[in-house]
Amino acid sequence: MEHEYDVVVIGAGPVGENAAGYAVQDGLSAALVEAELFGGECSYWACIPSKALLRTPQAVADARRLPGVRAELDPAEVLARRTSFTSNWDDSGQVEWAEGAGAAVLRGRGRLAGERTVVVTGGDGAETTVTARRAVVLATGSVPVTPPVPGLDTVRTWGSREATSAKEIPGRLGVLGGGVVGCEMALAFARLGSAVTLFNHGARVLPNAEPVASGRVADGLRSAGVDLRLETGLDAVGPGSGDAIALQGGGETIEVDELLVATGRRPASDDLGLDTVGVPTGERGAIVVDDSGLVEGGGDWLYAVGDVNGRAPLTHQGKYQARIAAHAIAARAAGRRLDTAPWGEDAATADHHAVPQVVFTDPEVAWVGYTAAAARDAGLPVRVIDMELAVAGSALTADDFSGRVVAVVDTEREVLAGMTFVGPGVAELLHAATIAVTAQVPLARLWHAVPAFPTISEVWLRLLETYREG
Fold first, then answer.
1. pLDDT tens column, 75-102
2. Any domain includes 432
3. What CATH number has the domain bearing residue 274?
4. Is residue 58 part of a domain?
5. Considering 264, 283, 302, which residue would you say is the last residue of a domain?
6. Which helix (H) or strand (E) holds 96?
């Protein structure tokens, strides 16, 4: 069988869906190719189920911070709610969306087989050759990285997929890795009843965040009952007594019922047929692209968006790239001039220094742009404002509310280069900071953006006052 479309997208997660959907809106025909579930990692094994596991326990924790409230949780109901958000790992709804959006749905593993050509191999081994008149878009996401721990291959392990789709709460859970997945899942399972031990090779969790945020998250994990072992990796892993897993680290051996390996991910660029079109990969297998998503060395027809290009491996950033790439494909197809200048419609400029991220721990961490260390490494002239998140709104939110805000100011232009919030519920503060950093709003102009009383957003006024006084 042979098929022809304007745009062929390999990978039907949120990023690939966006690329196909926007291409169709721009008047192009599009096909979505997916080897697993339409909706991808985020919908079934990452962002959505992980936050569903975290939300109810967090609501209970927040309620307990107020006098006169008694709150409990039922782990079985938490798991059931999580499952409802994944539609019990049934992608028929996502397929219906794709077809309703005007995209053709092709199940199977997609692989490049020359210029503008994709071969889709179905589960039964049948091959379909698909030709792209205008563009092929690679949106295959990322895959877990397995660390070289002796004996790790001799025991069963969880990755993030197994953790977020767990049917039961293990009595004892080991976690290797103190990044976002490790911290979030350690917190979730500790609150759902597991005895959790987290091994982190480095001196702090969330090493890319501001140090104050890392410290407070570490304290929060300990308060939730997590046995947090910093500067302690796993020296060896092997079978334990019965069905248990033995973990050796820091001169001690403990046994757990399950081991979550959360040591990062890398671009899923293997076996995509890049060799058939002469495209090499970069660091950790990333497919190098320009700001419109066009692959370097891939001619005028090959694009890569989302985690696979390694620029900003977050679902929302991938969807942002997909919107830009789809518009660029349509513009090039119509012979229109592209606006690829910084902050132009066809340039993913935010990927460079205005990337927002939230870690749904307790306390939450939300940041955008540069940390203080990253800004200095980039050679920016900066002043850092580091202050308590203490306003009327925070005091009303919880009796023991404790938060922190770190603002990185580019003193040459007097604009925000980055901002970090850490505290209960601070994720909802992030978009205002993202607008300020992305739009490079002068602090003098922000002075006239009046925060409502009594909200936690009043911290913006305190921040500007502190900067003026300094």
1. 999 999 999 999 999 999 999 999 999 9
2. yes
3. 3.50.50.60
4. no
5. 264
6. helix 92-100
Say yes or no: 429 and 392 in one domain.
Answer: yes
Residues 297, 395 share a domain:
no
Residues 126 and 272 in one domain: yes
Domain match, 303 and 255 both: no
Per-residue pLDDT, 1: 58
Tokens of 399: 């009796």
Q: Is residue 203, in this structure, part of any structural domain at all?
A: yes
List Cβ neighbours of 153 (8 Å cut-off, separation of 6 or more). none
**Helix or strand (DSSP H, E) at 366:** strand 364-369
CATH number at 405 reads 3.30.390.30
Collapsing DSSP states into helix, strand and coil, what is residue 208? coil
Looking at the 3D structure of the chain, how many domains does it have? 3
Tell me, yes or no, whether 21 and 134 share the same domain.
yes
Q: Which domain holds residue 462?
A: 363-469
Cα(456)–Cα(392) distance, integer angstroms: 7
Beta carbons of 171 and 205 less than 8 angstroms apart: no
Label each residue of the chain as H, E or C: CEEEEEEEEECCCHHHHHHHHHHHHCCCCEEEEECCCCCHHHHHCCHHHHHHHHHHHHHHHHHHCCCCCCCCCCHHHHHHHHHHHCHHHCCHHHHHHHHHCCEEEEECEEEECCCCEEEEECCCCCEEEEEEEEEEEECCCEEECCCCCCCHHHCCCECHHHHHCCCCCCCEEEEECCCHHHHHHHHHHHHCCCEEEEEECCCCCCCCCCHHHHHHHHHHHHHCCCEEEECCCCCEEEECCCCCEEEEECCEEEEECEEEECCCEEECCCCCCHHHHCCCCCHHHCCCECCCCEECCCCCCEEECHHHHCCCCCHHHHHHHHHHHHHHHHHHHHCCCCCCCCCCCCCCCHHHHCCEEEECCCCEEEEEECCHHHHHHCCCCEEEEEEECCCHHHHHHCCCCCCEEEEEEECCCCEEEEEEEEECCHHHHHHHHHHHHHHCCEHHHHCCCCCCCCCHHHHHHHHHHHHHHC
Say if residue 246 is in the same domain as residue 305. no
**This prediction's pTM:** 0.95
The reply to whether 158 and 299 lie within a common domain is no
**Same domain flag for 249 and 158:** yes
Domain termination residue (choose one: 212, 229, 264): 264
Write out pLDDT tens, residues 195-213.
Answer: 999 999 999 999 999 999 9
Low-confidence ranges of the chain (pLDDT < 50): none
d(CA 429, CA 55): 18
Is 52 a member of any domain? no
- CA 324, CA 329: separation in Å to the nearest integer? 9
